[in-house]
Specification:
Length: about 625
């Protein structure tokens, strides 16, 4: 469970209706298989010991007594096992019958959690047999031992902070006020659902939506185990549609009509981080819950869950295209509002032939189209200097022309050399002064043109550069509206690629594709044989790594050792472990030391769940110390 990871399982066993002996044998076999896979929480379907479709057999004493006997056998089977298991059975209490989940671990029955909502509509007629469960825990005797019985019961793991498990049963999820929400407000980070939901056309999609929604609203993990093959098909068919979700995302889903053991890793630290940030997630301190401890031995969970290399970019092509269209719209509408408010009719953009300025120009063109402002009111300014190559210069010019912007060239070499003379800087000394003087001269040119034209300077810098402080203070760092301020570099590449695909203009697409193929560079050092000599990623590190680090640092506040572990899995085969460690240390050094640049950022739209605006997501002191983060990052293994 190191770093908050817990492997869980949703199991659909083979059953025979009312054959409690056979069902128990299958349940025990599946417990062993799930335990072998490393599962610490194992969930079976509703009424799994008896079968859900027993009908009036639920009224038979023999079935009820046999279910209790078999439950004790299942509990005995778990002796010595380091897992919490939930199985379903009918249980009588004080002359009434209840549909319950039994929580068992290490040879003991820890609790009975009854179903709250008993359906009697459509194909369901459970009220014929079962009664709604009581909330406050009472005791029932089983094999002479008193066991808590009630819906308001949580099970808390000893040995792992934050692992608190709540339980609901099937229909409870479909109710307007599901018990799971109250469990979460009482502290549960994991919700389990023992279910027997039959299959009808379209129900699987609705069921998945409910599970995703329940996990999102509760900011919890949700383990849903569905009944499957073996249940009676007299009138209904059960597909075994089990799912494991985490905060609105389905991590794993069983193929229907195939009884499966579904295993996945859930991340308790991630859920706790989300809850810490949400001041609207208010714990219910008045809730009367019984918390029952159970033990888990500390261990390092073998990670099976997929860790995306680019967490800002969806893996699915359709979803990625949808995301790109949405982000372009957010950027353009943000800029549109600024122009509508100010009454300004012109824009000034420094175009370099690189990715960032290309995206900014595309967004500005889109905003002007929305406002019915002619695109020739966009002044695309190219400012060649010592490091400019023919390739980037040509692409900047072509892009401006094909988009219908007004292209203006201002060669800044002479101005920069005069500046060097004024401040006594040696032209042959290619240090940070040599580089930043060019960036600041370009910004001065853009600002002054904007004054003359009554225009706004549109910022081109992206969020990755801002996180690393890879911007010249009061140079490219400054603008009147930064359209890319909320977009990481890895995503910018996809946005430009998407535009190249959908623009429908052959010449524009050709230019965009060549921009994508050009190495990322500030072009502040002279080229070698006409080729870019200064590649950003050689100096500051691969952006795909830094974006990965940024996502987990800012989105969830993970510690360096956990981010390193995730990165090793995500980039296995792409980067050596020492390389990942090196750039992770660089990230922390730059992220902390460069906050002063982010503290005075111009306005710009937030587009995703991560942002660095000092007025929004990142209210961080400019003089905060990185010591404890760097100490751990230096000693990673």
């Amino acid at each position: 469970m190191k770093h908050g990871f817990v492997k869980v399982a949703a199991v659909t066993p083979d059953v025979k209706v009312a054959d409690t002996l056979y069902n128990t044998e299958q349940i025990c076999n599946d417990i062993a298989r799930a335990y072998e896979k490393g599962a610490k929480i194992i969930v079976f379907p509703e009424l799994s010991i008896s079968g859900y479709t027993c009908g009036d057999l639920f009224m038979q004493d023999k079935l009820l007594s046999s279910c209790k006997e078999q439950l004790l056998k299942i509990a005995d089977f778990t002796a010595g096992m380091d897992s919490l298991v939930f199985v379903g059975l009918p249980l009588e209490r004080e002359g009434k019958l209840y549909n319950v989940a039994a929580a068992v671990q290490d040879g003991e029955v820890l609790a009975f959690i009854p179903k709250s909502y008993i359906p009697a509509y459509g194909e369901f007629y459970e009220t014929r047999y079962f009664h709604p469960g009581n909330k406050e825990a009472v005791s029932v005797l089983i094999d002479g031992e008193a066991v808590p019985f009630g819906t308001n019961i949580l099970l808390e793991a000893e040995g792992m902070d934050g692992l608190l498990v709540g339980c609901e049963i099937c229909e409870d999820l479909w109710a307007p006020l599901s018990p799971g929400l109250f469990h979460a407000l009482a502290g549960a980070t994991v919700l389990v659902n023992l279910s027997a939901s039959d299959e009808v056309v379209g129900k699987d999609a609705y069921r998945e939506m409910l599970v995703k929604s329940a996990s999102a609203k509760a900011t919890a993990a949700y383990i849903y185990a569905g009944a499957g093959i073996g249940e009676s098909t007299q009138d209904l068919v059960f597909g075994g549609h089990s799912m494991i979700a985490e905060n609105g995302t389905v991590l794993a889903s069983a193929k229907r009509f195939e009884n499966q053991i579904l295993c996945e890793d859930i991340d308790i630290e991630r859920l706790r981080a989300e809850r810490r940030k949400m001041n609207t997630f208010v714990p219910d301190e008045t809730a009367n819950y019984l918390v029952i401890p159970f033990s888990l031995k500390p261990c390092e969970t073998k990670l099976d869950r997929e860790i995306a290399k680019m967490p800002f970019v969806p893996d699915d092509e359709k979803e990625c295209a949808k995301r790109c269209e949405e982000i372009l719209s957010i950027q353009a509408y943000g800029l549109r509002k600024r122009y509508a408010h100010t009454g300004c009719k012109k824009a000034v953009i420094g175009v370099s032939g690189g990715l960032d300025s290309t995206l900014a120009l595309l967004v500005t063109a889109k905003a002007f189209d929305m406002l019915d402002i002619k695109r020739n009111n966009i002044l695309a300014v190219t400012m060649p200097c010592f490091g400019t190559t023919d390739r980037t210069y040509d692409n900047a010019c072509k892009l401006a022309k094909v988009l219908g912007a007004d292209l203006k060239e201002v060669d800044i070499k002479e101005s920069v050399m005069m500046h060097f003379k004024d401040i006594g800087h040696d032209m042959d000394n290619h240090d940070v002064t040599y580089e930043n003087a060019q960036a600041r001269e370009r910004t001065q040119v853009l600002m002054d043109i904007a004054n003359r034209e009554n225009a706004m300077v549109i910022g081109t810098g992206d969020m990755s550069e801002l996180a690393l402080g890879w911007a010249t203070y009061n140079g490219d760092h400054m603008s009147m509206y930064g359209v890319n301020a909320g977009v990481p570099k890895t995503l910018i590449r996809h946005l430009v690629s998407y535009y190249a695909e959908i623009c429908g203009e052959k010449e524009l697409s050709k230019v965009l594709l060549d921009v994508l193929a050009t190495p990322v560079s500030p072009e502040l050092l002279p080229p070698v044989d006409g080729v870019i000599s200064q590649k950003t990623e050689d100096l500051v590190g691969p952006y795909e790594l830094h974006d990965f680090f940024m996502y987990y640092v800012l989105r969830f506040g993970f510690a360096p050792d956990k981010i390193y572990r995730l990165a090793k899995k995500a980039f296995a085969g792409a980067y050596e472990e020492e390389v990942i460690k090196k750039w992770l240390q660089i990230f922390y050094k730059r992220f902390f030391s460069q906050q002063f640049k982010r503290s005075c950022l111009p306005d710009g739209p937030k587009v995703g769940s991560v942002g660095v605006s000092p007025r929004g997501d990142l209210r961080m002191p400019s003089d905060a110390c990185a010591t404890i983060w760097l100490e751990q990052a230096k000693n990673l293994t």
